[in-house]
């Protein structure tokens, strides 16, 4: 994406101005640790970056027992960001974190999932939907607008009291087809 290309175009040591976003409420709460029993992530390209931060936070909390499942979708195997770090997090997680890589343009030797995803991939690699809106399962989706739309439906952007705001919109796409309820998905 654009941010990835920008960052890759920087020379070593060259500064990049960044702005930290304020905390974001997820279905009414900013709380992340000890909130869900099972947490799934669907990341398109650089959409993985915020999820790695959440995963680090959860794994660093000795009282948190959340099961974590991450699907990373990239074009090529060489595009997989932070792969050594992800492998280290999986190894240190005591079985709590599982990562599935999926490629849209894999090489001949690629043995993992292929394509942009599917309801079947969601069922195989993410936590099972709870089906009873108990708040114990959550799946987060991050990527380009088209990627998010394919997996979970359109995000509507609007202004409320002069602030840019994202509205979840209704759940559609692969996650809906895999049996998830809108209360179990954040995009």
Summarize this, please?
With 187 residues, the chain is of the alpha/beta class.
Q: How does this model look, in words?
A:
With 187 residues, the chain is of the alpha/beta class. The protein is built from 6 helices and 7 strands, in the order H-E-H-E-H-E-H-E-H-E-E-H-E. Strands 3-2-1-4-7 form a 5-stranded parallel beta sheet, with helices on both faces. The chain has a two-stranded antiparallel ribbon with strand order 5-6. Helix 3 (83-92) links the parallel strand 2 and strand 3. The chain is globular and about 45 Å long. The two termini are 18 Å apart.
Q: What percent of the residues sit in helical stretches (DSSP H or I)? A: 25-40%
Estimate the mean pLDDT confidence: 92
Tell me how many strands there are. 7
What is the helix/strand order?
HEHEHEHEHEEHE
Shape: globular
Strand order of the largest sheet: 3-2-1-4-7
* Structural class determined from secondary elements: alpha/beta
State the separation between the terminal residues, measured CA to CA. 18 Å
Describe the sheet with the most strands: 5 strands, parallel
Strand content: 15-25%
* Uncertain regions spanning at least 5 consecutive residues: none
The radius of gyration over CA amounts to: 17 Å
Tally of contiguous helical segments: 6
Task: Describe the SSE topology.
Blueprint (H helix, E strand, L loop, with lengths): L1 H7 L29 E7 L3 H13 L6 E8 L8 H10 L4 E7 L15 H7 L11 E6 L2 H8 L3 E5 L2 E5 L5 H5 L7 E2 L1
């Amino acid at each position: 994406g654009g941010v990835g290309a920008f960052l890759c175009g920087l020379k070593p040591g060259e500064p990049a101005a960044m702005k930290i976003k304020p905390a974001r409420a997820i279905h009414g709460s900013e709380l992340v640790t000890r909130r869900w029993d099972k947490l799934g992530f669907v990341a398109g390209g650089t959409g993985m970056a915020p999820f790695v931060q959440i995963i680090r936070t959860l794994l660093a909390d000795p009282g948190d027992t959340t099961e974590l499942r991450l699907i990373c979708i990239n074009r090529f195997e060489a595009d997989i960001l932070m792969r050594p770090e992800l492998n280290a997090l999986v190894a240190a997680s005591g079985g709590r974190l599982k990562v599935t890589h999926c490629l849209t343009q894999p090489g001949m030797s690629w043995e993992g999932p292929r394509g942009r995803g599917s309801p079947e991939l969601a069922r195989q690699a993410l936590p099972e939907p709870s089906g009873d809106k108990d708040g114990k399962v959550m799946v987060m989706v991050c990527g380009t607008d088209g990627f998010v739309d394919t997996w979970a439906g359109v995000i509507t952007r609007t202004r409320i009291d002069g602030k840019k705001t994202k509205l979840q919109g209704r759940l559609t796409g692969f996650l809906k087809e895999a049996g998830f309820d809108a209360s179990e998905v954040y995009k």
